[in-house]
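As noted in the main text, all predictions were made from sequence alone. Below is one such record, for NAD(P)H-binding protein.
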Amino acid sequence: MSQVLITGATGLVGGHLLRMLIEAPDIAAITAATRRPLADAEGVLNPHAPELSDALAQVVDPVDIVFCCLGTTLRDAGSKAAFIQADYQLVVDTALTGLRLGAKHMLVVSAMGANPHSMFFYNRVKGEMEEALRAQPWTRLTILRPSMLLGDREQKRANEAVLAPLFRLLPGNWKSIHAHEVAQAMLSEALTPGREGVTILPSAKLREIAASEA
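Prediction:
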């Protein structure tokens, strides 16, 4: 039985994952740190504050596994500085909170193309975030790199409406993936004993894991 911490529970992947965690018999306790209160999350400890870092500071119960589903776009963030805060700093803050509370395994949603040396800002920040987590003393670190995500967001993204149908036709890691598949793969990986160290799961592997759990 595992005690878990999740950030990003109000987002696309995190919302699916939270519902799966609530129903999972192997999960003993769930803490979801959020910026706004959760609705319909009975049994979930929900420290919340306008600044996520303040919500994380409220978490005091021991944790075994950390799930981080934070992520935005440069357009939604409004500036490069705000994007870095959301997709780099708050992910690192989530990780540090987990380590402080004794967690051994962290699973994080990154992105296909993440590379700290990328010429593209989005991919570079994702890559730098991954590097920061690799430098931390995790017994086990699982990095998920999904392609374009499918699913119903509270805030629609115009580029996804245009590109999603095209990405459905692409092969391998480029093919779009539904958010619930990413969440299912994330939970499955967390509950499956695995080797220590860093594991990177590209989009095609995420679909494969999710299909095996269907």
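The radius of gyration is 16 Å. The chain has a mean pLDDT of 91. These features were considered when defining construct boundaries for the mutagenesis experiments described in Section 2.9.
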